[in-house]
Amino acid sequence: MIKNYVKYFLPLSIVLFSTLTSCKRVFKEDNFVAYFGGEVLNPQEKYVLFLKDDEVIDTIYLDKNNRFMHKFDSLAPGLYSFKHNPEYQYVYFDKNDSLMVRVNTFDFDNSVVFCGRGDEKNNFLMELYLKNEADKDKMYDNFDKDVKSFIKNIDSSFAIRKTFYLKRKAEIGWDENFDVVAKACLDFHHITKKEIYPYAHQFRTGENIRTKLPSNYYEHRKEVDFENALLTNYSPFIKYVSVMLNNVALQKDHLDLNENSLENNIEKLNITDTLIKNQKVKNVVLNNVAMMYLLEDQNMYNNQKFIERYLQLTTDKENKKEITEIYNSVQNLKVGNRLPKIELVDTSYKPLDVNSIINKPTVLFFWTSHAESHFAASHRKVMELQTKYPDYEFIAINVNDNVANWKNALKKYNFEGIKELHASDFETARKQWVITKIHRIIILNADGTIKNGFANLFDVNFELNLK
């Protein structure tokens, strides 16, 4: 992944830093001045957002050459993120770091490379992230395996990445603060798989494996610092806490095995309230539980009961507002309502309102090039359904992508006979149609009213919606 810094960054550094003679500049360390700059190939917006804990600190505009540069007079050391819609990645700053990043939106994560003071740590994080992502692609089949085989597989995978981590730690010599982030990236990916396994195995095979787990299977929980606010908005931590809560809730004998049930999710809220004392961390976790639940269980009475408990526990006003907005959006997608208008374009880039083209029962399904396996699987499934249900129209809506990625994906697979649309403004679509899970399906009646706003294409009972 690490590329030739001189080839990519020396011309950029000359333009952006007249005082730099190379990417490795020695800075005075009498303040917290830091620099962040770089270049965006094939930009989709005219700016880059710089964030801390999901809050925008600065909007940094691209120049005519698609380059950007910003000086921070005071930037506290720690984990930040930068975003160029719809993509984002993390960046870690130590005192007086000066970092440049080069990204290509056509292959965002794989193209990210840093240069400058602090580059080695950040390039390490990107390499480890990509190793984790590659490992994740192989993860699901392992959930079908017996306990011994599963543990052997994930331990072997973890050992390889740990060796890489220890090697780079020795070479770079980073401090304890950065090591918190580096270890989190390493460890949470591993123990997340351990938490998912018991219930994923049961869902996939029908076998309750819990009684066969070793007595020390959950020892890793004792090592997790649930109060560490430094990791509050770090996705590996949030992902782990989410699946751990789900696993603990499903262990309760009196609870439904359906992880999206009202009882399970109120249990998750209650566990969070007991487990986590740091209110900042607690609020983020509560918000995540609420977000996931509201997108799954569309029983309006259940939603109201859940919201009542959530509002009792959270103290974050912004989170309350966001969850309340989602709750209201869900209410707007009730059976019999019409879809709120969002910006869509067809393959000729012609704008249209989906409500204006509905003249027969219709299934809307969603995809993104960032989930290629789902993109292919959903289109193949729909092509089968088209044959079985000729009275239905099936419309694919691309989300969370730029136009180039959308068109390239369609060209690569060439699925014929399916109407393809693209959501021009994904944020509006996400909020108005509550699209945060890619397997989501919306089924419309011939008059454009909603028949089922929250179906799942891969649910074994999905076809009952079409009869």
UniProtKB/TrEMBL annotation:
SUPFAM superfamilies: Thioredoxin-like
Domain of life where this protein originates: Bacteria
Residues covered by the Thioredoxin domain: 333-467
Coiled coil: none
Name under which the protein is recorded: Thioredoxin domain-containing protein
